[in-house]
Amino acid sequence: MKPAPFDHVAPETLDQALALLVEYGDDAKVLAGGQSLVPVLALRLAAPAWLIDLNRIASLSGIRELDSGELAIGALTRQRMVERSDTIAGANPLLAAAMPWIAHAQIRNRGTIGGSLAHADPAAELPAICVACDAILVAQSRSGRREIAAANFFRGMFETALAADELLTEIRFPGWPARRTHGFLEVARRHGDFAICGIATTVDRGAAGRIGDVRIVAFGVTDRPIRLAAAEQALTGTTGGGNAIHAAAAAAAVGLSPRSDHHASSEYRLELAQVLTRRALTQALQDKTA
Ligand code: FAD
After folding, report:
1. pTM for the full model?
2. Structure confidence at residue 290 as a pLDDT band (50, 70, 90)
3. Given ligand 1 and candidates 21, 24, 37, 159, which is best to mutate, with the most ligand atoms within 8 Å of its CB?
4. Closest by alpha carbon to 214, among 121, 285, 274, 138?
5. Which one-letter DSSP state was computed for residue 234?
6. Pocket perturbation via mutation, ligand 1, pick of 20, 24, 36, 56 by most ligand atoms within 8 A of CB
C-alpha cells in the first residue's frame, strides 16, 4: 500500500519545528528516521496532512559526556551512531550491548534513539534500557522544557507522557558506577525481529561484595517495559551465588501477567521471563570488570 497524500516540511531549527507542531496540531506527524512511521503511513494506520521532518535540525543530534558524569544523547542521533560510539561503550555498556539487537543495520542507519522512545513499542529495546538506567527524557515545547523520568514516560502500548505540542529532544543517562555490571538478552523468532521477551539488568556491588542496587527490566511481555521488583528484591543483599540467581529467576514470575498474541502465549512469555532473568543475571554476575 501507499501512504495517503501528505505535505512535507523540513524546519532548520528546533524553534521552527515547535512552532509548526502548534500550527498544524493533529494534522501533523513528526518524522525522524521514518523506520516506524513510514510503515504506519504505508498501512494507512495514520494519514497526517503534514510531515514535520526533523532531519535538518543539527542541534538534535550528538553524543556528549557532561561534567556531571551524565551521558547526553540528542533525540535525532542515529541508532547506528549510538552502537558504534566509543563514548557510549565506556559510559553505558548496557546501552552499547543492547544496540545490535535492534532490528538490522540498515534500519539502525536511519532509525533514531528518540524515534524509538517516542514510538514506545513495548517490545523495543531502548525503552527498557532507559528504565533500567533511570534515564531522563527531555521534552521541549514552545512553552518550555521538562524532564521526564523514564519510569513515568512509557504509559502503555505506543503511548508516552509526551504532550501533542512536545518533541523529545535529548536523553540523559546517569553516570555508570564503578562497581556495576550488566546483562542483556532477548528471544525473537529471528535476529532483528522485535523481542518476544527480553531482559535488561544492572547489578551494583557494595564494598563487601554484597549486592546493592539491582535492576531487572522485562520488555516484550506487557504493554511497556516493566521492572521485576520481586526478582530484584530476591537478589539484593546476597553475594550473587547460584542459589540467589535461581531464587531471583523464580521470583521474576511474581505479579507478572504477560500478554498473549500471535507471536507467543502468555505462558511461554512467563517461562521466558524466568529463564532470561537467570541467564542475564548470570551474565552480569560473571562479569569481573567491576
Ligand atoms: P520514526 O519512524 O520517524 O518515528 C516514530 C514515531 O515517533 C512517530 O510517531 C514520530 O512522530 C515519533 N517521533 C520521532 N521522533 C520524535 C521526537 N524527537 N519527538 C517526538 N516524537 C517523535 N525497533 C526496536 O526497538 N527493536 C527491533 O527489533 C526493531 N525491529 C524492526 C524491524 C523492522 C523491519 C523495522 C522496519 C523497524 C524495526 N524497529 C525495531 C523500529 C526501529 O528501531 C525504528 O527506528 C524506531 O522504532 C523508530 O525510530 P525512527 O527514528 O525511525 O522514528
Report:
1. 0.96
2. low
3. 37
4. 285
5. H
6. 36
